[in-house]
Design a protein that fits this description.
Layout: E1 9-13, H1 18-29, E2 33-38, H2 42-50, E3 57-61, H3 67-79, E4 86-89, H4 105-133, E5 136-141, H5 154-173, E6 179-185, H6 193-196, H7 203-206, H8 212-225, E7 229-231, H9 235-246, H10 249-260
Parallel strand pairs: 1-2, 1-4, 2-3, 4-5, 5-6, 6-7
Amino acid sequence: MKTTSKGSFAVVTGASSGIGLELAKQFAEHGFDLLIVADSPKIAEAASALKSYNVSVTEAEIDLAKSEKVHEFYELIRRTGRPVDAIALNAGIGAGGDFVRQTALDADLNVIDLNVRSTVHLAKLVLKDMVNRGQGRVLFTSSIAATMPGTFNAVYNASKAFIQSFAQAIRNELKDTGVTITALMPGATETNFFHRAGMDDTKVGMAEKDDPAEVAKSGFEALMAGDDHVVAGSFKNKVQATMAHVLPDTVTAEMHRKQAEPAQAKR
C-alpha cells in the first residue's frame, strides 16, 4: 500500500523501539513528517534512523506518565505550527506478577498513568484540534489483552480494555466529523515490553512472538482505511480474540494464567 501523503504530519508516542518505532517507519515510508516521543534516550537513535526516509523528524524525550509532561508535549506539537494529520497513541507499559503479593503499587499506578491517563489526556487535546479542522486520524494501540482478564498482568489488561472501549466510543461520537479512530490490537509481539514488565520467566515471555514491523503495517493500513480496529499478527491472535468474546471470563482468566504466571509463582 502506497499512500501519497507529501506534506502530511504525524505524531507517534512510545516511538523509541518496538511497535511505536515501526509505526513511525510506516508513516515515514508514506511521506509523513514526524514528531516522535518516548521516555528513553533511544528516541534520538530512532529519529536518526527515520531521517533516512527523507522526511522531517523531530524527537522528544518526555515521560508522558506525568500529567505536566503531557501538556509540555502538546505545546511542542503546537509549536511545530502544523496540523496533526495522524497520531498514533502507542506509549504503554506493563507490570507482570501477582497484583497483591508481587507487583509494587507505584508500578501498577504508573501503568494506569501512562496507558490510560496520558492517552486520554493527549487524545482530548489533539482531537479537539482535529474536530475543529474537520480532519484527522487517530490510532490507539490497544491489545488482544483487552478482551480477557489479565491474570498476573491484571492492571495492564484492564488498561487495554479501557483503551479499547474508549476508542470505540469516541469513534462513534465523532462519526460525522471527518475524524477517524482506529484501534490496533496486537498479540504478543517481539518488543522490549515483556522484559520491562518483568515477564521474562513466563510462558508468553519465552515464546515466539509476532514481528513488530508486520503488526505496525497492519495498524497503519487499518488507520489509513479508516477501520474501527484490526487484530494484528498471527492467525492465533484472531482466534484468541474471537474465543475471548465467547468464553466466560473465568475460563479466559485461567487461560491467561497459564501464559503469564511467573516461574517463581509455580514453585
